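Hi again,

Forgot to attach this to my earlier email, sorry! This is the prediction with NAP bound. I've pasted everything inline since the attachment limit keeps bouncing my files.
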Amino acid sequence: MSILVVGGTGTVGSHVVRGLLTKGEQVRVLIRSADRADALPFGARAVMGDLRKPETLRWAMMGVDRVFLVTALSPMETEEGLAAVAAANRAGVRHLVYLSVHHAERAPHILQLKSKVEIHKALRDSGMPFTLIMANDFFQNDLLYRESLLEEGMYSHPIGDIGLNRVDVRDIADAVVTTLTQAGHEFLCYPLIGVEILTGLDVADIYSRSLGREIRYGGNDLEVWEKEATSTVPGWLVHDLKLLYEFYQRHGLRASEGDFVLQEKVLGRLPRSFHTFVRETVTEWERDGAREHAKAV
Ligand SMILES: NC(=O)c1ccc[n+]([C@@H]2O[C@H](COP(=O)([O-])OP(=O)(O)OC[C@H]3O[C@@H](n4cnc5c(N)ncnc54)[C@H](OP(=O)(O)O)[C@@H]3O)[C@@H](O)[C@H]2O)c1
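Structure tokens for the complex follow:
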């Protein structure tokens, strides 16, 4: 079976590519520039294409049975996703699995969630079998905060006080691999959620315990966050993330019992815990620190 991964060089897609190769599947990865091919794992075949250039997708999808689609955050996300759905449908793809967001439909004023809802609709209208993977906030977003955690003792992801069932991207990837390689997941929608409800203070506390020193939560002031973010994040994304964090702070992003029942059907086990992720991550950072130290002496 030939499976095309769109977004296979990214956070979730790279785990999916490795998971599919482990299962012995034929994996193609859509890449936008030839130099990305070198980073692909052994056995994955690169195919050139760009969601912003729909004419390139015809060739990329030719002879493909299944597609895993990630749409990267972009002001063009809707158009990119719709182009991928149309190209897959035209190519006779038998099943498309799409990475979406837990409860995306609850906040259509946020561009990245509105895009998801429009892509869901296109999938429903296409008649092509599809599966939606509705992921909560990734644990791995915290890797972006490594410097502020280690150097300033601060956790500055302003997720608020109500709480999110954040999730490990490795569990998302495992669920995606299952839906792509086993029958029975067509036209279904799976939440991907962690077991702990995590607030900003909880996360800071868990890092404090693993690092063995105090980590403060940066707080819920989004004006302060915006000022910091503006130096590294494009303006449209600062605006959209600010809306997302306002939503998290007002409503949280919590899972229901029904969500866990659905997740069990695709994951077949409990998801990884945030405590374990933090322990692994801190161990990794300590190893990096020791290596840097050894190089310097
Ligand atoms: N972060 C979270 O907490 C969270 C939670 C739930 C859902 N999500 C959703 O997850 C998605 C992002 O997933 P991710 O973090 O795994 O992505 P990522 O790490 O940002 O990687 C994006 C991937 O898409 C590729 N790409 C970007 N633009 C493209 C284009 N025009 N044509 C073809 N490929 C293109 C990139 O290729 P290059 O290597 O060329 O850049 C890369 O492989 C978003 O839709 C987001 O809303 C995120």
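DSSP finds eleven helices and nine strands in the chain. The mean pLDDT is 97.

That should be everything now.

G.
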